[in-house]
Amino acid sequence: MSAHLLIVEDDSEMRDLLRKVLEKEGYDVSVAANGHEAAASLSRRPFDLVVTDILMPDDGGLELLRDIRNTQPRLPVIIITAFGDWGSYSRALELGAAAFISKPLKMAELIAAIQTALAGSGAGEAVVGA
Fold this sequence. Notes:
The chain is of the alpha/beta class. It is 42% helix and 21% strand. The chain contains five helices and six strands.
């Protein structure tokens, strides 16, 4: 059975691209446009991993990560961002992000980070493109 991923991205084109690429890799993918949709999805069914953009309207990726840590502390979360500032990076690691990846995304790096996180290797260790 393939891992079930939740992609949280406010940009519809990026969200669709991520979904298509990850489905092609064999993952079962659900999508959400913001933190509120993601929280609703997370309350309805279990996921194996979350990939979230950091800056989104309403709740952003760091807020979503914080909420996930409170309810599902072992769920791996990968943060992606076009704004890879040190403060956001360090906060994401403090909150236990499995990876922090800067845009423009290299799909091979994202897939590798997902595989590493799903394998259970060290939350907060896989930092790609920072």
